[in-house]
Write a structure and sequence with these properties.
Length: about 270
């Protein structure tokens, strides 16, 4: 009854026929011992899980923040909190945390030459937990980490891709726990959007472009334009931009990866 309790239909009859004449009291004793050991392990796991949940105490918000990251389960979040202490103030930057955990790239320097040396040793339990979470996040659909894993795995292989994703996840964890905010996924098309020329131009010119058009913005005095064809320099939010006046035409000048539309008739109009 113990062996066949969860089975139905023809499977029971097939197992019964296979065990006919070969299953005696000795085998039944061994089966009872094995099942009793499995029940003991399940009870122990349940008790330890309850003890861990009670021990979290004030780390409930941190646990909720970590669980908002793709690939991070309750068990993974509890392991991260247990290994790091949940206090990011002891790590000045996210780079310090990643180096301590062993997911940051190391370097070997000798005679003034630097050579790659894999990753640091770090904290082995936290490193294993993060790599497991990275592989789980790589299997998720439509997430930033799955796209990052796929891009790196094509060139460097699955193991290095998993370590790279684990590095990105721990870097994100440092910022989330420091700021106390939930994770917002950039999306699987994040890398494609970064290569979009229109979006790049908008992101590059965003802050200073808005301040230029803001009447209350603090700008350096605009120099008077010289005759046609001459060029002057203007300081705009600490960025040196070359501005030219072309008679009857509009040109563009690229400087420090910024694309600026130059004025046609009015100095303050782009």
């Amino acid at each position: 009854m113990i062996l066949f309790g969860a089975l139905t239909g023809s499977t029971i009859s097939q197992l019964g026929a296979a065990l006919a004449g070969t299953f005696d009291d000795h085998h039944a004793l061994l089966c009872r011992q094995i099942i009793a050991h499995i029940d003991f392990c399940d009870l122990t796991i349940t008790e330890l899980t309850q003890e861990i949940i009670e021990g979290l105490g004030d780390f409930g918000p941190a646990n909720a923040i970590l669980c908002s990251i793709p690939g991070v389960s309750d068990t993974t979040a509890q392991a991260i909190i247990a290994e790091t202490g949940g206090d990011m103030s002891r790590f000045p930057t996210s780079g310090h945390l990643c180096a301590w955990a062993g997911v940051a790239p190391a370097s070997y320097e000798s005679a003034g030459k630097r050579r790659p040396a894999g990753t640091r040793h770090g904290a082995p339990w936290l490193r294993r937990t993060l790599i497991e979470a990275a592989r789980a996040a790589a299997r998720s659909r439509g997430t930033y980490y799955s796209a990052q894993y796929a891009r790196i795995a094509k060139r460097r292989g699955p193991n290095r891709a998993a370590v790279a994703v684990a590095h990105s996840m721990l870097d994100t964890i440092w910022h989330l726990l420091t700021n106390g905010t939930l994770y917002v996924d950039p999306g699987a098309d994040y890398f494609d959007r970064r290569r979009d020329p229109a979006i790049q131009a908008e992101s590059h010119r965003g802050p200073w472009f808005r301040s230029y058009h803001d009447p209350g913005a603090h700008l350096a005095p605009t120099p008077s334009l010289t005759p046609s064809g001459a060029r002057t320099l203007m300081v705009l939010r600490g960025v040196w931009v070359k501005v030219a006046k072309e008679s009857g035409s509009t040109t563009k000048t690229s400087h420090h990866h910024l694309t600026i539309a130059e004025p046609t008739s009015k100095p303050n109009q782009l």
